[in-house]
């Protein structure tokens, strides 16, 4: 993977173009998008405390997976893919347990089936733009069609739940922080946590410190922008599509 300044600039430009298109259309025509209604609970600080507990639960589940204590892998590619997808549901299960116990709607994690077709279609179209921008910046236009071909390969499809649930987890924490301490910190805190979450893998891979710092800064900036946009759209479905296809474009699954 290219590690130059151009690469990081390309990632920011790609996500920015996709988000700014949504924000621009919404500014011109607010009624085109189904913005979900989210009711603020009375005990919002209690919900924030529970949300942090759920985040700890996700980390612990991840440690159980790393220790080989969840569903085992398999030499069969289909069984292996299914096992990996189910393991991701288990790892992120504290979110859904919290929603059930607190009797809260999936709207509070920015997931709603309303106009699902529109969301998926816009996610794909915005991905076209974002990936095109990415390759124009990195001079890799000849790789453009490869992304949409590889998107349907089992070795990549198996990663979609993990990618999507990452977005759900960030939205889960964002909404509860927004209820308690306001939008600004609700954007900053998850963005910092998401940037830090990638450090162990980078350190474990022996990535040079300057590259780690650059990648963390890019991750923080992108997460801030995506969180702001997801807050306006009240949705992570279309953004999940972009995240998945962009990960293929940058070779994140390799």
Any overview of this molecule?
With 254 residues, the chain is mostly helical. Helices cover 74% and strands 0% of the residues. The protein is built from 12 helices and no strands. The chain is globular and about 55 Å long. The termini are close together.
Can you count the helices? 12
Our measurement of the CA-to-CA distance between the termini, rounded to an integer number of angstroms, reads 9 Å
**Residues in helices, as a percent range:** over 70%
Low-confidence stretches: none
The overall average pLDDT, rounded, is 92
Oligomer: single chain
Overall morphology: globular
In short:
With 254 residues, the chain is an all-alpha fold. It has helices spanning 5-28, 44-66, 77-91, 93-102, 116-138, 144-150, 154-157, 160-181, 183-197, 199-204, 209-233, 237-250.
In terms of topology, how is this protein built?
Blueprint lengths: L4 H24 L15 H23 L10 H15 L1 H10 L13 H23 L5 H7 L3 H4 L2 H22 L1 H15 L1 H6 L4 H25 L3 H14 L4
Keywords:
254 residues; mainly alpha; 12 helices; globular
């Amino acid at each position: 993977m290219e590690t130059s300044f151009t690469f990081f600039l390309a990632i920011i430009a790609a996500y920015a173009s996709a988000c700014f298109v949504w924000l621009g259309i919404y500014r011109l025509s607010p009624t085109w998008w189904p913005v979900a209604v989210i009711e603020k609970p009375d005990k919002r600080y209690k919900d924030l405390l529970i949300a942090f507990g759920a985040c700890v639960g996700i980390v612990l589940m991840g440690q159980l997976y790393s220790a080989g204590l969840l569903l085992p892998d398999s030499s069969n590619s289909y069984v292996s893919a299914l096992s990996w997808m189910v393991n991701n549901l288990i790892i992120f299960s504290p979110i859904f347990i919290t929603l059930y116990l607190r009797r809260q709607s999936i709207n509070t994690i920015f997931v709603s089936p309303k106009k699902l077709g529109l969301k998926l279609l816009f996610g794909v179209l915005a991905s076209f733009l974002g990936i095109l921008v990415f390759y124009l910046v990195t001079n890799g236009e000849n790789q453009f069609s490869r992304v949409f071909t590889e998107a349907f390969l089992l070795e990549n499809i198996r990663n979609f739940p993990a990618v999507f649930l990452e977005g759900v987890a960030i939205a889960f924490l964002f909404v509860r922080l927004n209820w308690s301490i306001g939008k600004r910190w609700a954007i900053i805190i998850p963005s910092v946590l998401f940037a830090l979450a990638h450090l162990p893998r980078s350190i474990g891979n022996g990535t040079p410190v300057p590259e780690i710092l650059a990648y963390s800064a890019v991750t923080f900036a992108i997460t801030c922008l995506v969180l702001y946009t997801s807050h306006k759209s009240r949705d992570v479905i279309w953004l999940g599509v972009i995240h998945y296809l962009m990960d293929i474009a940058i070779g994140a699954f390799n």
